[in-house]
Description:
By secondary structure, the protein is of the alpha+beta class. The protein has one domain (2-167): 3-Layer(aba) Sandwich (Aminopeptidase). The chain is built from seven helices and seven strands. It has helices spanning 12-19, 22-28, 34-45, 75-81, 104-119, 134-142, 170-173; strands spanning 2-6, 51-58, 61-70, 88-94, 125-127, 146-151, 162-167. A seven-stranded mixed sheet has the order 1-2-3-4-5-7-6. A hairpin with a 2-residue loop joins strand 2 (51-58) and strand 3 (61-70). It is globular. Residues 2-167 form the N-acetyltransferase domain.
Amino acid sequence: xxxxxxxxxxxxxxxxxxxxxxxxxxxxxxxxxxxxxxxxxxxxxxxxxxxxxxxxxxxxxxxxxxxxxxxxxxxxxxxxxxxxxxxxxxxxxxxxxxxxxxxxxxxxxxxxxxxxxxxxxxxxxxxxxxxxxxxxxxxxxxxxxxxxxxxxxxxxxxxxxxxxxxxxxxxxxxx
Length: 175
């Protein structure tokens, strides 16, 4: 079972190690650096930016991290994605190399969606992995996300095309 807990400054060392692995760096570091990513996380932990960062835990061991934010807090990014201001954006990574199988990514996204919905039940949820990140795309689709578009996103640090997915608000999904 996967659980989420608030990220603490002490967690940044393990995130640094995860970002140093080729599997994570491939998706997180094009157009960025480990230090830039860690500084963004540090600022979120300190409450200096409106993103909640969480550690993914399985069997009492940290195995990855995720984050969410209201798109309205980042209007340029929301506009670039075509997101509604009340939508929530998510990002996620499984950092531990031995834990990237057995549908664990699906469980991570499901836990993150449940967490976001607990705080903002009427929010749609947006995710935009690189279009070539097939594993991430499958995880989103297994969680009910629908592909909206595939294109570069000006607010992303890479010019690579992104696969923009949206999960309808829980109120729309029940109709």
